[in-house]
Amino acid sequence: MRISVKRTGGFAGLTRRWSVEVGGDELERDWREVIEACPWEAVPAQENQPDRFIYDIQAGERQATLPERELTGPWLRLVDMARRAAGQQSG
Amino acid sequence: MHCSIVPPYLLRRIARLERDSLQPAAEAARRALLRTAGLNRTRQAKVRQLSAVLPAPSVLHPGPEPARGPEAWAELAPDRQINDAQHGERLPGKRVRSEGRPPVADPVVNEAYDGLGSTFELFARVYGRNSLDDAGEVLRATVHYGQDYDNAFWNGTRMVFGDGDGQILKGFTGSLSVIGHELTHGVVQYTANFAYQGQSGALNESMADVFAVLVEQYALRQTAAEASWLIGEGLFTDQVSGVALRSLKEPGTAYDDDVLGKDPQPGSMAGYVQTSDDNGGVHLNSGIPNRAFALLALRLGGYAWERAGLIWYDALTGPDVGAQTDFAGFVRATESAAVKRYGRDSEEYAALAAAWAAVGLMD
Ligand SMILES: [Zn+2]
Q1: A25 has a chain B CB within 8 A of its CB
Q2: Which residues from chain A sit within 8 angstroms of residue B282, using beta carbons?
Q3: Given an 8 Å threshold on Cβ–Cβ distance, is A49 in contact with B151?
Q4: Which of B11, B135, B165, B268 could form a disulfide with B38 if both were Cys (CB 3.0 to 4.6 A apart)?
Q5: What is the pLDDT of residues B305-361, one digit of tens each?
Q6: pTM of the predicted model, to two decimals?
Q7: What class, spelled out in words, does domain B76-190 have in CATH?
Q8: Where are the domains of chain B?
Q9: How far apart are CA A74 and CA A52, in angstroms?
Q10: What is the rounded CA–CA span in Å between residue B212 and residue B161?
Q11: The CATH fold of domain B198-358
């Protein structure tokens, strides 16, 4: 499964991407629980604060766009895991 | 944005009708009303008084210089509070410096304190504006936010600065234009309150950039021709090929780096970016009104905060703009501001029309 995070906005307006391909065993062992814990269908529509980031998060077929303020709990864990894993895979 | 839910026009109306019966109102509503009432009472009179008499700018370095300027604005003084998040994400963080206190050991705290002062100076001495709300609101900043946090933002009541990631971006208090930018988001919140999405969001961004460069130019007493017109100069680390984050004069030219790519800002409507990223490209399409302002100021010459800045300030704080104003609506607001202040046959109005035409926003 491909898990990817695109971060846009921010004062600098620089887009950052982190993406990782996760195989079956690893998916079940490390990722499934946090992916299921994210409320994919219940993302609040909220106006963003000026210059805060926006996160576009994808796990397989599922997708959600969150303002930075909503990046808490399982969302934050998922993004942190993706960033760390992407860092390891690319270098 | 943490703004008033009641639209400004409604607040203004209530303020007019009920200024004498505010006591029972809820505290939040009362504050919002007083801000607006303060705006109504003082702004028009103050800006009308603005004439050729411009004070020498003073950057508020440790031990602020006595304020000089038109009599009516001399009493305006900032009230600053700097807090330290100590690399956490809880706001506001620990208070580390308050108004009138001497510099502390941490240079980041002092940069924020001085930058708030320079921003207050521009709005107070040039436009007669008493802080963000024109009613003397405390200027609040939190530094050292988060771990390797490569951003600065406005949360509705305070500016928040990260220290950068050290790889691409350095600490955000290092550029006065960043501080001016974030505080101007506060001014916008109390005035036009442009919704942070699409074209109105790009206008919100553009106001923040325009007054940010004016804060710098005023502090350095630079003419339009002398100024860099850059936002975030010196924020990139040595590993990045770029001079700054944005250029108002030449959008799209601030950086060109093999990792970050090229500065994606358009400088005219021909390059307008349709995207769902970044609240609809608010940091991209802001390049279009940014360049119109720079062109106007360069065409008029002299100090950009004078004639060009006044037209922009009048438009931003005037009756013709609101949360859903788009580019065309802002063009009309600047036109009516220029006509009111200088007349339809004026050099200023002609230069304004030429500037909007150059970015593709004039029929
Ligand atoms: Zn901004």
Answers
A1: no
A2: 9
A3: no
A4: B135
A5: 999 999 999 999 999 999 999 999 999 999 999 999 999 999 999 999 999 999 999
A6: 0.84
A7: alpha beta
A8: 1-53, 76-190, 198-358
A9: 20
A10: 16
A11: Neutral Protease; domain 2 (1.10.390)
